[in-house]
Amino acid sequence: DPSVSAAFKESQDRIQTMAFIHENLYIKKSMSEINIKEYLESLLKDRIIADSTDNRKIDLKTNFPDINFKIDTILPLGLLLNEMVTNSLKHAFPHRRKGSINVSITKKGKEYLFDYRDNGIGFSEINSNKESRNTAHSVSTLGILLIETFALQLDGIIKKTSNFKGTHYRVKFKT
């Protein structure tokens, strides 16, 4: 069943994200911190490459500071990013459409601003249950729930906007 296979693939991607974090911890000298620039860029490139079987071109732009985060920050941040990328790759660029994904983290005082955007077809909500219209991509309820959960694990405040120009997430958090 294709839908069951897809669910297993998404679960496998989430597990792989967590394994990648732990692998980084064991390879590096520090067992408690990971460089976010190295980790997040590698995670994104691996996700894009893993999805490139349909010859789709996704332009990836990143801007991450060269700093370390503790495991209790990097784990939900990596899973948050993985979920957003998965949603973009799965829904935002139908019919092998080319697209772009831009991700950055900037420091503003004592807070960090995580900014994610794609230029896909966007999605719109009919009601508070997050059902989607047929004219826009349908992001799974589980995907939205996971994104919100990972933002909460960061003690972050998340803002989401989406329209025909793409989807944009902004998460403010402290480490």
Summarize the structure in words.
The chain is 43% helix and 26% strand. The protein has 175 residues and is of the alpha+beta class. The strands form two sheets. Strands 2-4-5-7-6 form a five-stranded mixed sheet, with helices on one face. The chain has a two-stranded antiparallel sheet with strand order 1-3. A hairpin with a 2-residue loop joins strand 6 (157-163) and strand 7 (166-173). The longest helix is centred in the N-terminal third of the chain and has 26 residues, at 2-27. The radius of gyration is 16 Å and the shape is globular.
In short:
The chain has 175 residues and is of the alpha+beta class. The protein has helices at 2-27, 36-50, 71-92, 141-153; strands spanning 33-35, 58-63, 68-70, 99-108, 111-118, 157-163, 166-173.
User: Strands across the major sheet, in which order?
Assistant: 2-4-5-7-6
Poorly predicted segments: 125-138
Radius of gyration, whole Å: 16 Å
Distance between the termini: 42 Å
Shape from CA axes? globular
**DSSP strand tally:** 7
What's the order of the H and E elements? Answer: HEHEEHEEHEE
Largest sheet: 5 strands, mixed
Helix content: 40-55%
β-strand amount: 25-35%
Structural class assignment: alpha+beta
Nearest-integer average pLDDT: 81
Number of helical regions: 4
Question: What is the secondary structure topology, with strand pairs?
Answer:
Elements: H1 2-27, E1 33-35, H2 36-50, E2 58-63, E3 68-70, H3 71-92, E4 99-108, E5 111-118, H4 141-153, E6 157-163, E7 166-173
Parallel strand pairs: 2-4
Antiparallel strand pairs: 1-3, 4-5, 5-7, 6-7
